Each structure stands twice: as C-alpha cells, then as structure tokens.
C-alpha cells in the first residue's frame, strides 16, 4: 500500500462497502470534505475565544508527547472531565515567560470539550458522525475524550509512533479515533502518518495507573514498528480521518510557518469495560454520552 485509503465523504456519512473494506485492511480511512470549511473556521474562532479567556499564569505546565514524565502531573491527570490547556515544551523561556503569544504556545486543549462546551458538543455529535460510527461497527458508542491540537508553527513538536488504545484501553478493545483537520495538514506542518495494516500487529503498550497511583507504561510486545512503513495522511481542512485504536501513527514536528489545528474525538463502546486504572477518569456527575438519536 503506497497511499492511505482516501475518499470524498459519502452522503450522510454512510460508508460504502469499499470504504469499510479499506478501513478493515489499513486500519485508517480518510474522508475528505466531511466537515464544511465554515464549520472548521467556527470551531477555530471559538477556540481562540476560549484561549483569550484563559490566563496562562494560572498554570505553568508543560506537556510534550515526547516527555511522558509530565503525565504524572495532576493538572493533566485530572483533565479527563475538564477543559484545560497544555503548552508546548519550548513555549517558555528560562525565566518562565511565554516566548510568544498564547495561541502560538499551546500544544493542546482537552479533554471534555465535547461534553462541557456547547459549540464543541454540536460539532462532535452530528448525524453524519453518528452514521459513520454505526457503519464501522459501533452498537452503542460514547465519546470518551476530545482534544484540540494546535501544532503551532516552528515549535509544534513531534509525536512518536503509538497506538491510541494504549491510552484509551477497554475490554474488549473498542477505541476508535475520529480526527478532523481544521486547517490543511501537510508533511511540512506535521501531518499524521500511519503504518497501514499495523493495527493487526497487536497492542504494544498499555498506559495505566499502578497500585501506588503513579501512571506507568507496560510493554506488551517489544517488536519494533517496521521501519519506513509509515505513510503521510495529508488532509485538507474539513477532512475526517477515522482510525482503529490499534492503528500505529505518528506526526512530525511543525517546521513551517503555518499552524496545523486539528480536533480529535475518541469513541469507545459503552458495553465494553472501562478499567479504573486508565489515566482518563471522569466524575460520575458527567456520565458518558454518545450521539443523539
Ligand atoms: Fe494518537
């Protein structure tokens, strides 16, 4: 496979047999034009308003996917049912001040915008998404997390090859990622790359809370990912990328002058068991929700 399966979004989000066969084969499916560019623009503008209202002095926290130790930080650990902002590791100077404005210093926002913010809620729960989730086999889907990824120009960091089921683990496994390009994602600005078929290679790691409460990684399979097998998932704004929780993916640093905003949802099946050891936990006051009927 030299190219990831890429289609124009079908009417109503109803996936065809060919799309589903490709998704099964590759573990990833790219649907261009799933969201109108105006909707992408609206979500970006709304996010900029949320950033405006956020005072970074409250939180001098750095999150980088390259430095997993920060996952220990309570600010991150307790963000499963909140809306919180996480900075790029290079965002602050030695004195602890932001090197550039807030918008261009952020790594991501997470992890419950879809439940706490009406604009994100509406974006995340369209009939088209419900239909796409049904087509790929969800009987009773719930949205467990949302992330807004900023990938700012020049400092947007690299994300190493991983599987999202490592972090969003259920028994049986049911995690699926729905990733939306809110701006054009290219190789230059750090688009995702996938190893097609890699979802059949098993789960390599689990990330969970150990008996002492500390988050840890457990290696389940030490086999390295095949070298050079990853394929770029370039995606114009409005594209939806659906990928299996076991699909290995990575993204390069953003070395360009353009940001690469994206929005991700992770779905799980309500019928599967969600372990109490998973990093992401939610208050019982905020029950999981799927899509409106
Ligand atoms: Fe991921």
Descriptive account of the structure:
The chain has 293 residues and is of the alpha+beta class. It has a single domain (6-269), classed as Sandwich (Jelly Rolls). It is 17% helix and 24% strand. It has 6 helices and 14 strands. It has helices at 17-26, 37-52, 74-77, 113-116, 118-124, 127-135, and strands at 6-8, 28-32, 83-87, 106-111, 141-149, 159-162, 176-181, 192-194, 205-209, 215-219, 231-232, 240-244, 249-251, 262-269. The chain has an 8-stranded mixed β-sheet. Strands 6-13-8-11 form a 4-stranded antiparallel β-sheet, with no helix packed on it. A hairpin with a 5-residue loop joins strand 9 and strand 10. The longest helix has 16 residues, at 37-52. The radius of gyration is 18 Å and the shape is globular. It starts with 5 loop residues before the first strand and ends in a 24-residue tail after the last strand. Mean pLDDT is 92; it is low at 61-68. Bound molecules: fe (ii) ion. Fe (ii) ion binds next to loops.
What can be said about the biggest beta sheet? 8 strands, mixed
Count of extended strands? 14
What fraction strand? 15-25%
What would you report as the Rg, rounded to the nearest angstrom? 18 Å
Shape: globular
Strand adjacency order, main sheet: 1-2-12-7-14-5-4-3
- Report the order of strands and helices: EHEHHEEHHHEEEEEEEEEE
Name given to the CATH architecture: Sandwich
User: CATH superfamily assignment?
Assistant: q2cbj1_9rhob like domain
- What level of helicity do the residues show? 10-25%
Q: Could you tell me the mean pLDDT?
A: 92
List the uncertain runs. Answer: 61-68
Small-molecule binders here are: fe (ii) ion
